[in-house]
Amino acid sequence: MKNGDRTSFKRLYKKYHKPLYYLSRKYLKNEAIAEDAVQDVFIKLWQKREDLDESASVRSFLFTMLKNHVLNMIRDKKNHKRILKDLTLNEQQNPGYNPIENKIIYTEYLDFLKKALKKLSPAERKVFQMKSFEGLTNAEIAELNKVSINTVKTQYYLSSKFIRNYLRKHADIYSFIFIIFFI
């Protein structure tokens, strides 16, 4: 598989798909999302195939990747729920608060964030997304991108600073939300 042999990959897929799926479903509590998580893991395996250590256990590698991916998915879902909960709490505490307006503000915030991300260099954007949205560590990002950890730290620092400034300049209050939930 390390050399691109698809037959070997298919054997691994057949051997580990079901156990990975059952474990994923146990934690994600949703069949479709669990299946997506397993597919993501196998895609990462194929992408990292050249870097695999032949002496290491592929089984351990797959289950570790799945565990990290599922934890990231759960964390991202909790962050999203926390934002929505805060918005709902704000609605309950302020009788004049408009939930439709709140959803519009959240949508506008996401639009500003997308615009800011587009203005980053491809390398900075990739590092920012991997760290902020996928929850990868500096070491994992460095390994995946074949760069040093210091490069990852620098790119993340610069991209975070740019996005904060962009949101502060273009979206005023949105930078506060961004800092709380993403940095």
Topology:
Elements: H1 6-28, H2 31-47, H3 58-93, H4 99-119, H5 122-132, H6 138-145, H7 149-171, H8 174-182
Helix pairs in contact: 1-2, 1-3, 2-3, 4-7, 5-7, 6-7, 7-8
Please summarize what this structure is:
This protein is mainly alpha-helical. It contains 8 helices and no strands. Mean pLDDT is 77; it is low at 173-183.
Mean pLDDT level? 77
Task: Summarize the amount of helix as a percent range.
Answer: over 70%
Terminal CA distance reads 38 Å
Apparent shape: globular
Largest sheet: none
Helical segment count: 8
The structural class is mainly alpha
Specify Rg, calculated over alpha carbons: 20 Å
Fraction in beta strands: under 5%
Write down how many β-strands occur, each being a DSSP E stretch of 2 or more residues. 0
SSE pattern:
HHHHHHHH
Low-confidence stretches: 173-183
Q: Would you kindly provide a written description of the structure presented here, covering whatever features stand out?
A:
By secondary structure, this protein is mostly helical. It is 81% helix and 0% strand. The longest helix has 36 residues, at 58-93. The chain is globular, with a radius of gyration of 20 Å. Residues 173-183 have low confidence and may be disordered.
